[in-house]
Specification:
With 78 residues, this protein is mainly β. The chain has one domain. Helix content is 12%, strand content 29%. It contains 1 helix and 7 strands. The strands form 3 sheets. Strands 1-6-7 form a 3-stranded antiparallel sheet, with no helix packed on it. The chain has a two-stranded antiparallel sheet with strand order 2-5. It has a two-stranded antiparallel ribbon with strand order 3-4. Strand 3 and strand 4 form a beta hairpin. It is elongated and about 60 Å long. The two termini are 12 Å apart.
Length: 78
């Protein structure tokens, strides 16, 4: 299983973008009025090709740059 850690500060908490759908209320012109919910479904989970930002130090890079290979190797040997 992949494990992630900020290569700059070591924190394991990130800010990423997910693509979701929502139900909206619109008017007779099709103009947005309000969102009826936060999320109906996720259409794209964040992955290693997306940009991730460290929640602690704001370091940003592709998700693959946050892979913690050392922890992954330890986990595989356990």
């Amino acid at each position: 299983m992949a494990k992630y850690r900020c290569p700059k500060c070591g924190v394991e908490c990130f800010e990423v973008t997910a693509h979701v759908t929502q139900d909206w209320k619109i008017d007779g012109n099709g103009t947005f009025l309000e969102s009826l919910n936060d999320c109906v479904e996720v259409t794209h989970d964040p992955d290693e090709e997306d940009i991730w930002s460290c929640a602690n130090c704001d370091f940003s890079a592709a998700g693959r740059e946050f892979r913690n290979l050392e922890a992954e190797r330890k986990g595989a040997g356990a």
